Amino acid sequence: MKRIDFETHFVTEEWIEAYLSSSGYPRLAPDEASGNLRLYYQADAAEPWGEANSKRLLDLGEGRIAEMNEATVDVAVLSLTAPGVEQLEVGMGTRLARSTNNHLAEAIDRFPDRFAGYAALAVKDVDGAVRELERAVKDLGLKGWKTHSNFGDSYLDERRYWPILAKAEQLGVPIYLHPTVPMIAALRTYGITLAGAAFGFGQETAMVMMRLVASGALDAFPDLKIIVGHYGEALPFLVQRMDFPYVHAYHQSDQGSTVQLKRKPSDYLRQNMWVSTSGNYLPAAFACTRDALGMERIVLGTDHPYESMVDCIRFLENLHLSQDEAAKLYWRNAASFGLESG
User: Most exposed: 38, 122, 141, 157, by fewest CB within 10 Å?
Assistant: First the structure.
């Protein structure tokens, strides 16, 4: 059975150099106490950046394919790792997005049966980002846009970014909404213990998905497709609760207290959002997601190289899915995003 992995990450040498030379945040720099290289999102939140991990992120060739073969993953949909290019100086970010997309397209050309990819965009040049997304999809053959839970000073739902959402809808390609260290200062109080992948990443990403709902962006662009990792960052657990102010009599007596939407919040989550399996190995989390959204909304994601592809596949195989459920998860649902699913 074919397996298409929707969340795998890479970097380029040029990207690493940009963050090593950055004088602001984010940046790559050694920790003063330990000397270990870390990726600093802000002074109070940094994650390890080891040589082995860097080597695996840089590998867009035989080494990565060998890991895919070991895990029985057929196709990897590649994306530039967080924090992408959105928080760089606009000119540098624009140049780096273009060169990164070219680099990715070249790797896909070398291994067309094994790799696909999402574009990187420097969103603060909105007109340029719109043009680059169109180029990446139409000329380079990339399958969508991978972006992040914040851009350093702003969020995806803000109206200045709506032209990029409009272009993604027009092109019929998904947006993969991926975490980065939160912009919310209170989530960085205890470094990456609170801010990082274990908690803060997901909290802010879920908030941004709900901001897209509350802003009316999904009313303006009703065919927009958004993929959220880690089983939707706990949103399936909350999908019924999201409707509370729209269905409860207490709120219905004063309807002006809620944002006016064309649908209930849960409808947007069920109709515009897909989720991937990346980095969550709790059977109850999978069961909740399946019950809340349906198998049609779940795609395979391994979060390579931050998580093990082998461990992800082993976990999913141990869920003892039916043949129909496994087919939807591993390849059939990929048809929603223009990926070959035979």
Answer: 141
Mean pLDDT, residues 143-162:
98
With a CB cutoff of 8 Å and minimum separation 6, the contacts of 336 are 174, 225, 274
- Please state the φ and ψ torsions of residue 270, each to the nearest 5 degrees: -80, -20
Rg (CA), the chain: 19
Going by C-alpha positions, the residue among 61, 39, 4, 68 that lies closest to residue 305 is: 68
Rounded Cα distance between 232 and 289, Å, is: 8
**Whether pLDDT at 246 is above 90:** no
DSSP 308: -
Fold that domain 4-337 belongs to in CATH: TIM Barrel (3.20.20)
HSE toward the beta carbon, residue 20, CA cutoff 13 A: 9
Catalytic residues: 303
Are 176 and 138 in contact by the 8 Å Cβ rule? The answer is no
Q: What CA–CA distance (Å, rounded) separates 87 from 39?
A: 13
CB atoms within 10 A of CB 36: 11
Residue 76: the pLDDT is 98
Of the candidate ranges 4-8, 41-45, 74-78, 198-202, the one whose mean pLDDT is the lowest: 41-45
Asked if 93 and 85 count as a contact pair (C-beta separation under 8 A), the reply is: yes
DSSP 71-110: HT--EEEEEEPTTTTTTS-HHHHHHHHHHHHHHHHHHHHH
Domain residue limits, the chain = 4-337
Alpha-carbon distances, residue 331 vs 112, 297, 327 (angstroms):
17, 12, 6
